[in-house]
Write a structure and sequence with these properties.
mainly alpha, 2 strands, 5% strand, two-stranded antiparallel sheet
Length: 78
C-alpha cells in the first residue's frame, strides 16, 4: 500500500485509542457504575463507546501491522 494510506490508518488507530481512553476517564471521573438492589447494572453510554473505540483501534493496528509485514516481506524477496 501507499505510504499516505498507512500513515492515515495509523492516525485513525491512534484516534480511536485516545477516544477509548478519554471515554473511560470521563466515565470514571463523573459517572458511577453501580448495581442496584434488584441486581441491575447501571452504567452510562461511555462504556460502550470506550469498548467500541478500543476494538476499532485494535483492528486498525492489526491491519496496519499486516500491511507493514507485507511491505517487509516484499522488500526481503527483492
Amino acid at each position: 500500500m501507499q505510504k499516505p494510506f498507512k500513515s492515515t490508518l495509523l492516525k485513525i488507530a491512534l484516534f480511536f485509542l485516545l477516544l477509548a481512553v478519554a471515554s473511560l476517564l470521563i466515565q470514571k471521573s463523573f459517572y458511577p457504575i453501580y448495581v442496584d438492589e434488584q441486581g441491575l447494572l447501571h452504567e452510562t453510554l461511555w462504556t460502550p463507546i470506550a469498548a467500541f473505540s478500543f476494538v476499532l483501534s485494535v483492528a486498525s493496528f492489526v491491519v496496519y501491522l499486516i500491511l507493514f509485514i507485507f511491505k517487509l516481506i516484499k522488500r526481503w524477496i527483492r
